[in-house]
Amino acid sequence: MFFSLILGTLIHLLGLFISKCFFYLRIKGIVTNKRLFFLINPQLGYDIPTIIGTIVCLSAIGFEYLDYLPTSLSLPIIVLFGLLGFLLPIIVWKFNGKTIKFRGALLKSIDSLVFLPMVALCEEILWRLIFPFFILNQIFDSMAIVILFSSVGFILLHWSIRGVNVLAYMTLFTFFAWLSFLYAGIVGAAVFHIVHNLVIKAFRPVTRKTHLSSLPPASQTEW
C-alpha cells in the first residue's frame, strides 16, 4: 500500500512538471496548431495527473479514508466553511485596495464546471488526508509535525506554480483549510476549497487605475 501511495503522490507532482512544460511550449510559440494548442493546456497538465494520482492513492487505502469523514455531517458547519471560502479572497482583495470585477462567463467552461471542483477535492484528499495520515504518519509520531510538513509541502507546491507573491496568501489559505478539515473532515475542507476556487475563477481583483482604463488580462490566481 505504501508504494502505491508514493506512486500516486509522484503522479500528482508530475502534473506540476507537465504544467510547466506546457506553459513553456505556449509562451515560446512552439505550438502553432490550434487544436494542439488547446490540448497543451498548462491547467489541464496539472489537473489530470492530480486526479489520476488521487485515484491511485484512494485505490490503495480502500475504505480506510472513510474514518476521516464526519460521522454526522452538520449542514450549518459545512455552510460556514463554504462561506469562509467565499469571503477569504474577497476580504484579502478589499484589504489590498482592489476593485473586484465579475467574470461569470468563465464559470460556463468545462474547466470550471468539471475540473476545478474535482481538482480542489483531490488536493484536499492528497494534502489533508493521504500525505499527512498515510505517509508522514509512518515517519513522525507528532501530529503537529505531520500537519506542519504537509502544510509546507502544499504551500511550496502553489509557490512553484504561482510564484513568491502567493506565499503569504497560501499560508493563510492552508490554515483555514486545515481548520475546516479538523472541524468538518474532508467534506468541510473540500467545500471550503471548491467555493474558494470558484470565487477566484468568477471574480478578478484589479487596481482602480486598471479598472478604469483597460480590460484585465487572463487570471493567474487560481489555486
Question: Which key terms come to mind for this protein?
Answer:
223 residues; mainly alpha; two-stranded antiparallel ribbon; 8 helices; 2 strands; 72% helix; globular; disordered C terminus; transmembrane helix; membrane; Rce1/LyrA-like_dom; CAAX prenyl protease 2/Lysostaphin resistance protein A-like domain-containing protein
Question: What would you say this structure looks like, in words?
Answer:
The chain is mostly helical. 72% of the residues lie in helices and 4% in strands. It has a two-stranded antiparallel sheet. The longest helix is centred in the last third of the chain and has 36 residues, at 167-202. The chain is globular, with a radius of gyration of 18 Å. The chain crosses the membrane at residues 6-25, 46-66, 72-93, 113-136, 142-159, 166-195. It holds the Pfam family Rce1-like. Residues 111-199 form the CAAX prenyl protease 2/Lysostaphin resistance protein A-like domain. InterPro entries: Rce1/LyrA-like_dom.
